[in-house]
Structures are given as C-alpha cells and as structure tokens.
Amino acid sequence: MNEIEFEVGGKYENMKGTYEVLSINDETMQIRWETGEEAVTDIDFQRRIIERMEFEQNQLEKKKAKKAKKAASGGRVKFEGLKESDFSKKISGTIWRRRSCLGGSVKVFSESDRFDIKSWSIARKPMIQWADVKHRNSDIFSYQGKFFVSLSEENLYCGYCIEHSKKAGNNTGDWGRFLSWLMSESNEQHLKELAFDRNLMICHLNKDGEIAWKIHSTDKKWKLNKKGEEKVVDSLPEFLKTVSEESRRVDLQITKSMNKKDVVAKGANIADDISAIFESLFPIYEASVAEGDSV
Questions:
Q1: Helix (H, G, I), strand (E, B), or coil: what is residue 281?
Q2: Strand arrangement, sheet containing 117-121
Q3: Would you say 96 and 102 are in contact if contact means Cβ atoms under 8 Å apart?
Q4: Would you call 106 helix, strand, or coil by DSSP?
Q5: Whole-prediction pTM value?
Q6: Bridge partners, 21 (sequence order)
Q7: Beta partners for residue 216, in sequence order
C-alpha cells in the first residue's frame, strides 16, 4: 500500500465522513467535514485511519465472497434484519437471538486457526454473546472475555465485554490478560485511535444494566463521564486496574451504539456492520484468551 499524501483542497474520508483539507502545518492539518465541522488533527493519525478503513474493506469483501459461496452450497443463514418490535427488554416471541438468525449471521473472522467462535443467546436477556467453543466454561462464562450484541428499546449495542467479580475466586485469567495487553503503550494507543475512529465507548454497567460511567476517546485523550461530570483519564489501564484492585464488580463493555431506526433500515446488512466491529476488536479478545485454552 502506497503511503497516503494529503494535499490542501483534497478530499478524504474517515469514519465521520468525507472531509476537505484546509491547511497543512508540519505534522498537523486543519480539516472540514461536509457538515461544516472543523478540526485540527494529526496527519499520521488520519493516515492510519484511511489505511485501516481500506484494510477492513478488503477483509469485508473477502468475507462476503465466502458467504456467497456458502449460500450457493445451500448453507445460507436466513437472517433478514431486525424489526422494531425486537427492540425491547422482553424477549418473548423474538427469534433474532438464534444461531439460525442474527447469532449465526454475524461472523467473527480471524486469520488465526486457533479459534472456533460460536454464539449463545443469554437467558432472559435481549443479548447474544460470542466466544471460542473450547475456551468457554459455563461455570465462569460471565467472567470471560467475549463479543456481544444487546438491544434496548432505542439502540443496538455491540462490541467486547468482560466482567470482574468482587470475589477473586470467580475471576478467570481473562481480566488479567486483558489488562496486561492494555498496559502496553502501543496497545492503549491503538484502542484510543480505534475508539475515536469508530465512536466506541468504554463503559461500566451497574447491576440494573444501566451505564454507571463511560469513557470516550477524543483525538488524543480519554475522557471519563460519571454522573454528568467529565474529567481526563491519563491512563485507561491504570484506571481499570485501580477499579478492579478495590475488589469492586466491573461489568466492562467496549461498545458501539447504533440507533434503532438506522439498524432496522440496514436490514440483513447490519450483520456485516457488527462483524466489522468484532473484527476490529479481535486483538483484544485474542489477548484475553490464554494459550492452551483453545486450539
């Protein structure tokens, strides 16, 4: 791939949409989106976003080709999209969580042959979770890292989740391995860029399933929002380490929120959007599963 060279007046695209370069100054440039919003941003940062988008588009095209081949052989998953009635705290009468529906249509692809990832619908919850078959342990599944999709009355949430228990004996090594991965400066920076690029939030859910606090990525910083108050978090791994060392329950999600109207309009293609989010977060899942726990 040739290195992208930005030019004043040139138009490029990131996850927020198409933008025009207004000026270039050494390592930064001023850009303006079609909405009129302007920002000063790092050139290398925007270059990495474009390269990542091109890579993910290539991967998506390969996946679609595989799905088309599977459909031609008679193994097509019959998923036609989510309905407005699916967006509810109740699951009675719904089928979207089945492996023959959204559960099987969303694929967690990886270049590694190490994983065999399948979906499970979560009892009495509008939620599906995906995990490696051999790593999954039904007794401690709540405290293992996995991918998820959940619905509220207005939104779809999808991403990676992992829980830390108050009782040390309940915790698997997944939480520790996740934090160890995040302690790497380059990994934290990667997640920071990914969260900004894809508008992901990192949040903790209380016992009622409501967001207790959430962290967003700005261009260069983490910002914590708790009870309406916002402050900068210098180090995400240190913040999470402190929370977990206080023996507090942490129900952590790295998640993308999608509006119900947009999801319904996407039809069956929403499965590809969810797959792309999972794929972008795959390095985190891979790091949280110990060698020897899987193939």
A1: coil
A2: 117-121, 127-132, 146-151, 155-164, 250-259, 201-205, 211-217, 222-226, 229-233
A3: yes
A4: coil
A5: 0.75
A6: 31
A7: 201, 223
Q: In the chain, which residues fall in CATH 3.30.930? A: 84-288
pLDDT in tens, the chain (295 residues): 466 888 999 999 887 889 999 999 888 999 999 889 898 998 888 888 888 888 877 777 776 666 655 554 444 457 889 999 999 988 888 899 988 899 888 877 666 677 888 899 988 899 999 998 888 875 677 788 999 999 999 999 999 999 887 765 555 688 889 999 999 999 999 999 999 989 999 999 988 888 999 999 986 799 999 988 999 999 999 999 888 877 578 899 999 999 999 999 999 999 999 999 999 999 999 998 865 444 3
Residue 126 DSSP code: S
Report the amino acid identity of residue 132.
D
In the beta sheet, which residues pair with residue 148? 129, 159
CATH architecture of 84-288: 2-Layer Sandwich (3.30)
- Give the residue among 125, 133, 67 at the shortest CA–CA distance from 96: 125
CA distance 179 to 47: 28
Q: 53 CB contacts (<8 Å, ≥6 apart)?
A: 13, 14, 15
In which residue are the tokens 């694929």 written? 107
Query: Burial level of 114, CB count in 10 A (0-12/13-18/19+)?
Result: middle
Neighbours of 102 (CB within 10 A): 26
Cβ burial of 124 (10 Å; 0-12, 13-18, 19+) is exposed
Helix (H) or strand (E) run with residue 119 in it: strand 117-121
Q: Which two tokens stand for residue 128?
A: 């599906």
